[in-house]
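Need residues for this backbone.
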């Protein structure tokens, strides 16, 4: 299986997940792209595509969100992104692979234990005491692997929001997180000599060309996700997604060279 096909599949998953199909399908996107391009280039290629996916999702869920969650999470997100940028510049490609792999494996484990965690009765009222630390965690994990989903879910699920409001709020939060990251990924210390910027920008002309190449798959994925939502049950598909996410995460950690199985 070619690296281009793996990357195309990963980008298609962005659209599917933004349309609300496939549970945590979006979490599989970064590990697959890392296998195709390597960690730093993959993260840079994906961010503009994620922003495009957010735009399609915002259109679909416009106004169907709980805006107050932004004031609790965003201050921490900014801090988390700055911390994440500092850390990511100190990691080798191998160390980044391990970090992204651990996030993927942790995501799968979270999916199986979240119901146990949130069994307590009564809705949680969001506040800054939990919102700021959650935002910091979301900012760090999103910087490393575009993987803030579990952290955001930990903050939103206990609020017991109606399903549509929950999805719309998640879309709104991810849109803000991705745009907060954008200047940090585009600029580096050669442009502005600031200590909290990356030594080398992650979004470059090269990565933007790759992003543009895969962009048409975003609206196709969104359309396909809407169609699949109407036609099929997600249960089996979601289990397959979690299984493949686990395998991909383990591949990044232990380097089993799963690619030889695809040939």
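Answer:
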């Amino acid at each position: 299986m070619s690296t281009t096909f793996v990357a195309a599949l990963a980008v298609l998953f962005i659209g599917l997940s933004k349309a609300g199909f496939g549970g945590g399908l979006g979490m599989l996107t970064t590990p697959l792209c890392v296998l195709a391009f390597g960690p730093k280039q993959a993260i840079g290629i994906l961010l503009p595509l994620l922003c495009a996916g957010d735009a399609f999702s915002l259109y679909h869920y416009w106004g169907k969100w709980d805006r107050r969650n932004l004031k609790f999470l965003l201050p921490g997100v900014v801090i988390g992104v700055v911390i994440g940028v500092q850390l990511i510049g100190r990691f080798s490609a191998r160390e980044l692979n391990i970090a992204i792999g651990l996030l993927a494996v942790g995501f799968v484990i979270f999916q199986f234990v979240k119901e146990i965690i949130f069994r307590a009765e009564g809705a949680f009222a969001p506040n800054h005491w939990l919102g700021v630390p959650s935002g910091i965690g979301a900012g760090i994990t999103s910087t490393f692997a575009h993987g803030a989903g579990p952290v955001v879910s930990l903050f939103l699920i206990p609020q017991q929001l109606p399903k549509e409001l929950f999805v719309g709020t998640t879309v709104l939060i991810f849109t803000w997180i991705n745009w907060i990251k954008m200047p940090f990924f585009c600029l580096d210390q050669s442009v502005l000599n600031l200590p909290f910027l990356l030594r080398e920008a992650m979004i470059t002309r090269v990565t933007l060309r790759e992003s543009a190449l895969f962009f048409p798959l975003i609206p196709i994925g969104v359309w396909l996700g809407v169609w699949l939502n109407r036609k099929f049950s997600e249960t089996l598909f979601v289990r397959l997604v979690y299984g493949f996410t686990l395998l991909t995460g383990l591949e990044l950690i232990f380097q089993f060279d799963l690619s030889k199985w695809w040939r």
